Each structure stands twice: as structure tokens, then as C-alpha cells.
Here is the input.
Amino acid sequence: MSSSQRSSNCSGSSTSTSSSSDTESSDSCESSSQKDQSDISIDGASSRGNAHNVYSTDDPFSKATLQWTISVPIGLGLCPWAIKSHNHQRLRIVTCETEMPSDVPALLEREISSLTCEVDKVAPLSTTLIVCPFTKHWDDFCTFENFVKGDIKRYVTKDVLDKVTLVAFHPNFLKWHALPSDMRIGSTIQSHYGMIGQKSLETTQGTIIEMENRAFGLRKVKVRFNDEIEGSRQEQYVPTDWIDNSNGICEPREPLPDNFMYQTPYPTIHIINNEDLAKLCVRDVSRVKRLNARRMARRGWEGLSSYTSLK
Here is the structure.
């Protein structure tokens, strides 16, 4: 297919599975998802009657992403809601064949509309994955994430974006790193801090008072900042990557296995309907996060090596 053809063409495939019972408890989702996985097929496809899209089970990109979804988020028991979406055929995967990042928002806006509106009395979708294997410069994770988290706002209106949450998945997803071994409880550090849900522009001095938390695993540490920060708590859980390591004294940081949960075969924009997010029990979400932190720590990179062929 030529570049000009790809720039204006998108293809997708939706899941088709046999029915199985939902996972009611996140504590049992690992064993439940492994059982359900034997009933899941990636060979079928079902159309939602959207004339704008072509559904093809021969599309290697959407098929590879579906296989990854079945094997990692579902197969490893990381997301009980993915199991429900998949088994109820409410998960949609679309491969975007454009090469230009500026062409992606039109597809994204259309998929958001499909995700947030009932079409022809068909049960609504709960999540959509837009796979972007051809888009230039998106082999770099930071460039891709910056588009998903920020640049997209230049192309899609706030009213549309307010309906959904966008998450960046990428084969080179690396956001979480372990602290250097010379940092421990009581260590004095320079760190960014959270202000109204945002990362501060500057760093300030603080002391590490907790290294591991059940909810965050090793992704965040608890820091007591030495100076009072206006409008912010003096003690905060901050991502380890917010801690300044620019002095060169500390050894390089090792990437945490937690990153593996977001390492799709191709750059992928995960669209989640905010109405569905609002229905999730905060307690269940917290429990799943704790379970996932323990699962990733227990498996480690070595234990996840058998899944690298999916990428």
C-alpha cells in the first residue's frame, strides 16, 4: 500500500468471543482470566454497522494488539474490566494507516464519538484501542506520549476530550524506574512535587520516609519536603522519576517491570469512556493496583520474558 493510500485509510477489527462469567473479585482475576483465555478467539470479527470503517481479521496490526490484550492485561490478570469488555464484545481495535500525526485526530474524534454514543441500538463500546504502526516519529515513546497527553488538545476540542480518558501504550513504554541503591529511607533528595494534580516545574529538598507502598509498589516513594509548599501537602507520594538524579553521583536507575503492562506491539492510543470510569468502585480500583504491583514485583523482568515475543 502506498503512503498516500495509508494517509487516508484506516482499518479495524473488533473482538469476538464466547460468553463466560465476569470476574467479580479482583483477587481472583488472575486465575479467572487464565480460564477465560482458553475460550477466547481472535479469528472472528463483528461489525457495529459503522460505515466509516472496514473490519478485517487479516490486519496483522490489530490482530497482534488483540493477541497482546488477551495474553497480557487479561492473561496476567491485570485488568478484570478488560475481561468484561472483551467477553461482552465491547472492546474495539482500530488500525490507523496514516503516516502523519496531524491526520490521527480525525480518526480519534470519530472513535470517541462512536465510543460515547449508542449506534443503531447496539450495546455501547466500553473501550477502544487505536493502533498506529506507521505514524512518523512515534517510534519514540516520549514524542508519542506528548502527543496523547498534550498536543492532541490542539486538534480536538475540549468538549470531545472531556468525554474520555486517553492512555498511551507503546512498545518502548518506560515511565517507572527503581531508585538507585544508594537511596534509602532517610536519604535527603531533590524532588518535584504535586500541585493540584500536576508536577511542579521546580524541585525542592525533601527526605524519603517510605520506600514501598501496597498501592504503588516501587513506582512511588513517600517524601517529607523540608519546606512548606504553598497549596500542597508537605508529605507526598511522588513517582521515583520525579527525584532529581542529575548530579551524576547515583548509579543509573533500572526500569521497573511495571512498565511491561503498557508495552503494546505498536504505538497505541487507549480510549476509555469516562462514564464507564465513573462506575468503577474506588476500592476495587485500589485493590487491583495493589495486586498488579505485587504481580509485577513477583514476576520481575525474567518472569515476563516469555511474553516479549508478543511485541
Summary: The chain has two domains: 3-175+258-310, 188-242.
